[in-house]
């Protein structure tokens, strides 16, 4: 790699939630660089090239619209993109292993390894290979081994770690205003030169003081550490929500009081039905596995507790629903509001709504589900997944998916709010109440509704981390007596 040559051509392997948005922002901010995002999935690339992108992210349509076809390309031509690239991001998925050693905990690096082998097979010139996927500490070593064992004469590689910290639903603003960019690399002059080249890309819009450079292993571990510590805060406040419910304290007031301490800070202290998403659980399990392999059982069990508390929170909430509905939901209709793992995304990976829906179905309820951005087929696929259910036909019969909240709520015994979509705050709950079975229940798993107003309407309201007063009497019953 000649020292003076800057990066002119970037290839990204993996057009997912990270590869797509990250490369779109690089293309937007670096108009002189050609950015090609490739994927093995023809369907995914076709969606990136269509009017309906494969992922919903506020602001992303506009960015892609501005750059696509100019300096941003989505393609299945993996070979062409690798051949012409100076720098290659590996942004492929790193799920939890489902087989063999470390099953259920270790990260499955088969896609990362596959990507490295593809690069080694195809590349004819020097490349900077950047690990953007979240990987176990020292994964860069495995990538380096694969590349050096298969490299063509005269071709050299530099491997960098550059983990991604964006959150779904805010990916565009997270990328534009990143708290920091982290780049890890070799301490050799070649390694440092590669770091400089990657820095110069981010410096198009990120101030240099926010670009942190470290050794490769610190960078890899920092990504796992950041996710583990964010999830730990959620489990901490969720654990306290149980204490609040038992004592009369209010978890929002506790979070506010605690978060005002500048040493603690207010973010990520929102008690909930538990964290979801594709990464927190997977990355902590991976950290736990690494600690076990390093013979650090105390450290492993410390982090395992963050996951255990999350499972407890999800189960506690579902148990509360069943208990409140006279200890049985068998034959009852329950409306699930929100299925995504958080608002402003259509992603349902590890969504707590799946756990809640599964438990209610197991208890014999039928479900009416509405989410503003999750496609109905996604919901059916999640609920009929072999790890979730044994009788997919039964699930398809008991679950109906709606395109608005009012139809989903009609005729149900209870509303269970699983995702904090803004539109749920402003629904007409008077109208919803009239059309529900009585007594009508609301379980607000995100603490976003005006509970006093709902109680005044006549609802029985339950939420996380706060005891609420029951209504003195049910104000209005359905005009249709068969619904009562
Ligand atoms: P994803 O499943 O949405 O996308 C990964 C894509 O890689 C898939 O489309 C898959 O087809 C493709 N792929 C697999 N092997 C390939 C290969 N050899 N060549 C080309 N494409 C290939 O995953 P994601 O959510 O984008 O996550 C990617 C990585 O980033 C993971 O390690 C994850 O932990 C990490 N991460 C994710 C987020 C997030 O918000 N989702 C945030 C930060 C970091
Ligand atoms: C998280 C991290 O925030 C990102 O920095 C990281 O890059 C990403 O994981 C990753 O590695 O994949 P993400 O999972 O997209 O991002 O979304 P978060 O905003 O972190 O929310 C995760 C879950 O925690 C959601 O279910 C959310 O509802 C829940 N949450 C979040 C709470 O229950 N309480 C809170 O206070 C915050």
Describe the structure.
This protein is of the alpha/beta class. 42% of the residues lie in helices and 13% in strands. The chain is built from 18 helices and 14 strands. It has a six-stranded parallel β-sheet with strand order 3-2-1-4-5-6, with helices on both faces. Strands 11-10-9-12-13-14 form a six-stranded parallel β-sheet, sandwiched between helices. Helix 17 links the parallel strand 12 (414-417) and strand 13 (441-444). The longest helix has 32 residues, at 216-247. The radius of gyration is 25 Å and the shape is globular. Nicotinamide-adenine-dinucleotide binds at residues 13-19, 38-41, 44, 78, 91-94, 111, 114-115, 118, 133-134, 164, 166, 168, 278-279.
List the helices and strands and how they pair.
Elements: E1 9-13, H1 19-29, E2 34-38, H2 42-48, H3 60-67, E3 72-75, H4 78-84, E4 87-90, H5 110-122, E5 127-131, H6 139-150, E6 157-161, H7 171-176, E7 181-185, H8 189-202, E8 211-215, H9 216-247, H10 251-259, H11 280-293, H12 297-324, E9 333-337, H13 352-362, E10 366-370, H14 376-383, H15 392-398, E11 399-402, H16 405-409, E12 414-417, H17 429-434, E13 441-444, H18 451-457, E14 460-463
Parallel strand pairs: 1-2, 1-4, 2-3, 4-5, 5-6, 7-8, 9-10, 9-12, 10-11, 12-13, 13-14
Helix pairs in contact: 1-3, 5-6, 9-11, 9-12, 11-12, 12-13
Bound molecules: nicotinamide-adenine-dinucleotide (NAD) and uridine-5'-diphosphate-glucuronic acid.
């Amino acid at each position: 790699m000649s020292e003076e040559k800057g990066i002119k051509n970037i290839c990204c392997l993996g057009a997912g939630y990270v590869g797509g948005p990250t490369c779109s922002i690089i293309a937007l901010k670096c108009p002189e660089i050609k950015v090609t995002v490739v994927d093995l999935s023809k369907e995914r690339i076709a969606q990136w090239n269509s009017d309906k992108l494969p992922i919903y992210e506020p602001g992303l349509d506009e960015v892609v619209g501005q750059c696509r076809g100019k300096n941003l390309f989505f393609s299945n031509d993996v070979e062409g993109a690798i051949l012409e690239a100076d720098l290659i991001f590996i942004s492929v998925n790193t799920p939890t292993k489902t087989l063999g050693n470390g099953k259920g905990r270790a990260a499955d690096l088969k896609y990362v390894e596959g990507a490295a082998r593809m690069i080694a097979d195809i590349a004819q010139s020097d490349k900077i290979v950047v690990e953007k996927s979240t990987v176990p500490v020292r994964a860069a070593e495995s990538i380096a081994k694969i590349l050096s064992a298969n490299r063509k004469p005269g071709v050299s590689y530099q491997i960098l770690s550059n983990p991604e910290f964006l959150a779904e639903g805010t990916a565009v603003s997270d990328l534009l205003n990143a708290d920091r960019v982290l780049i890890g690399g070799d301490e050799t002059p070649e390694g440092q030169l590669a770091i400089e080249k990657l820095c110069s890309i981010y410096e198009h819009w990120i101030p240099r003081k926010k670009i942190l450079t470290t050794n490769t292993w610190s960078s890899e571990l920092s990504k796992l550490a950041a996710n583990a510590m964010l999830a730990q805060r959620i489990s901490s406040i969720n654990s306290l929500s149980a204490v609040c419910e038992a004592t009369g304290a209010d978890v929002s007031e506790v979070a506010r009081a605690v978060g005002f301490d500048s040493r603690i800070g207010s973010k990520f202290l929102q008690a909930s039905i538990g964290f979801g998403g594709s990464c927190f659980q997977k990355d902590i399990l991976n950290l736990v596995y690494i600690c076990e392999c390093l013979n650090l059982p105390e450290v492993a069990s410390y982090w395992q507790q963050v996951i255990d508390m999350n499972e407890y929170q999800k189960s506690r909430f579902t148990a509360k629903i069943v208990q409140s509905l006279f200890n049985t939901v068998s034959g009852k209709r329950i409306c699930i509001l929100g299925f995504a793992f958080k608002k402003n995304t259509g992603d349902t990976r590890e969504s707590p709504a799946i756990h809640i829906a599964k438990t209610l179905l197991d208890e014999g309820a039928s479900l009416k589900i509405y989410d503003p951005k999750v496609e109905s087929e996604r919901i059916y696929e999640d609920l009929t997944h072999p790890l979730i259910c044994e009788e997919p036909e039964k699930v398809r019969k008991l679950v109906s998916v709606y395109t608005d909240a009012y139809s989903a709520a009609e005729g149900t015994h209870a509303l269970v709010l699983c995702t904090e979509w803004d539109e749920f705050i402003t629904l007409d709950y008077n109208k919803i109440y009239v059309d529900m079975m009585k007594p009508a229940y609301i379980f607000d798993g995100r603490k976003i509704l005006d509970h006093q107003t709902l109680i005044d309407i006549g609802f029985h309201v339950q939420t996380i981390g706060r005891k609420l007063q029951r209504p003195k009497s049910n104000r209005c019953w359905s005009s249709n007596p068969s619904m009562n």
